[in-house]
Amino acid sequence: MSQKGFTLWFTGLSGAGKTTLADRVYDELKERRVLKVEKLDGDVVRTNLSKGLGFSKEDRDTNIRRIGFVCDLLSRNDVIAIASAISPYRAVRDENRALIGSDRFVEVYVEATLDTLVQRDVKGLYKKALAGEIKEFTGVSDPYEAPLHPEVHVNSSTETIDESFDAIIGYLEARGLIEPLPEQAGYSAAEEQAVSAHLEALGYL
Amino acid sequence: MSQKGFTLWFTGLSGAGKTTLADRVYDELKERRVLKVEKLDGDVVRTNLSKGLGFSKEDRDTNIRRIGFVCDLLSRNDVIAIASAISPYRAVRDENRALIGSDRFVEVYVEATLDTLVQRDVKGLYKKALAGEIKEFTGVSDPYEAPLHPEVHVNSSTETIDESFDAIIGYLEARGLIEPLPEQAGYSAAEEQAVSAHLEALGYL
Q: What are the catalytic residues of A?
């Protein structure tokens, strides 16, 4: 019955699929009646924690530390905190891991090639960044330091969202951070067919 | 067994005793084995949430909203959040009350006269503020809007810390936000004397 808190930290380039996956995981946990889950994504963070911060390394680090501080407050009080932020610098991500504790920190690296992202470019940001209209754009004109040992590594250039989602949920279940769903009740399609055939042979159908 | 979260919000001038009282309440709750309590006081907030903010009305409001955002995240997940911040503007305190919900927001106004604070002046700030060396100093050169209907109103010019502390704990118990201590077991001194006398009369002592 008692829930253990942890932080699920999505990192990766803009447009890689962090928020899409974070939303899917959040919805799944809510559907499973996990009561204490909080999402700290781009909009929430920009409005409530990071107003006034820019895109210098220092400001980005402050932003990531701040989100980490809140994730820690939540995780250590049995809440699951789901954060998605580009969080381009490895050192400050690792600071958060140290603060929150390795037993409660799950880093999900959402990889995607720049080619994929430029093709996708839902918000038209890559086009502008490549044209030099946006400065300090991670992956184009600003560095991204990929995690060396993320707990989960998904790749939206080569996997479907469902596959990435399954990998994340599977990891959390395998590690005992969330409870696996009870085995599906009932029969598989093949079993059902066999049962039907059997009942028919006996004259019940 | 299950704990209800709420926010205990201390407001008042610098030096009025907010942090002293917040610390006392925090320690008391820890002693009573209330497991989920978090303190958001000056230092914690300045380091982790408010770096870069100044003392303009806008920056002060941003700071108070930000603390409120975190208190809300905690309170709605069954954590007791204890915040102490000058929080001079009524409107933004009331915004936090609306966000967190009146059923979970307990405003404690820690009053003290300017005379008391200037005499006390532990950090020497009032002297500097009165000499014009610190600009935008609440209560001297910057406004403080006292709460109109705080849940608890204490006054460190006229009460001891113990009295203020008792008023706060008493309020929280009376409202059912924390459990009252079980009645002291055993006898009072007078009762004990009576029992001893009785036993002695019977020849047992």
A: 87
